[in-house]
Amino acid sequence: MKKDLINGRWNIVEMEMWDEDYFNMEEQAFIQINDNGNGQFKFGLVNANLNGNIYSVNGKERYEFTWDGYAEMDDVFGFGWFILDSYNKISGEIRFHRGDSSTFTAIKADSKELDIFNIENQERRIAKIIGDPSLSVNTETLTKYLHFFKRHMLLPHRVTGTDDYFSHVGYKGKTPSAYDEFELIGFEEDIEEYSNIFGKVRRLSEKGGIFSLQLFEFESLDKNSTEDKILSDYSYWISHYL
Predict the structure, then answer these.
(1) In contact, 102 and 1? CB cutoff 8 Å
(2) Sheet with 157-161, edge to edge strand ranges
(3) Is the CB of residue 178 less than 8 Å from the CB of residue 161?
(4) Domains along the chain?
(5) pLDDT tier for residue 138 given thresholds of 50, 70 and 90
(6) Is the dihedral angle over the CA atoms 25, 27, 30, 34 positive or is it negative?
(7) pLDDT in tens, 117-129
(8) Average of pLDDT values for 116-145?
(9) First-to-final CA distance of the chain
(10) Three-class SS of 38-96
(11) 175, 166 in Cβ contact below 8 A?
């Protein structure tokens, strides 16, 4: 988990202990993370400052923080944590010292670029990403799509092949089975050589080398995620317009 992925304001949209009428009673409930790891949160009548960092817990990274503030006229303090579910969603827990605790879900307040997925027509979404209504596949539009991937794909991400086989040999002359499961861990930068975007993937069934394969031949294993939508649109674009 990179710190720049969690920085910013996250609007709290759900809490286990309190309903929306309470946690949004004065203003939109939020949690804010600053560049230095400090921040604040506010919900209902609770207003607090926090300080935290990223830690690995049971092999999964999460942001943990201590906090102190006030609720109405009372001083309060406690502990909390959250994980990054997707580029624009976090979930975690806020605990009061010797008091209540509540899980919460929040979405990124300034993720305007992801409003693109409110466009129902797939080709219009793609045109918005690449800035070309003709949907032409060229170095310029591929570069724009690569930048979009790098900004919005939360890596590593679990994927598998969309067809019976991969059309490109990617590692030491070997091509894995398209039925395997992989982690997408990065992207190749050289677009001009292949006129396509290649993803760096690691097969989950074994340790070893990293394959470099055409990204449009993959689909997400996490259906209905942001990453699933991004990969699906890209695969459609390449398959129909390259």
Answers:
(1) no
(2) 211-214, 198-203, 181-187, 157-161, 218-220
(3) yes
(4) 3-108 (2.40.128), 113-241 (2.30.30.530)
(5) very high
(6) negative
(7) 778 889 999 999 9
(8) 90
(9) 34
(10) EEEEEECCEEEEEEEEEEEECCEEEEEEEEEEEECCEEEEEEEEEEEEECCEEEEEEEE
(11) yes
DSSP letter at 144 equals H
Q: Token pair 């900004």 is at which residue? A: 151
Q: What type of residue is 233? A: D
Tokens of 187: 């992207």
Confidence of residue 212 (pLDDT cuts 50, 70, 90): confident
pTM of the model: 0.63
Q: Tell me which residue has tokens 């006129």.
A: 195
Q: How confident is the model at residue 94 (pLDDT cuts 50, 70, 90)?
A: very high
Reported residue count of the chain is 242
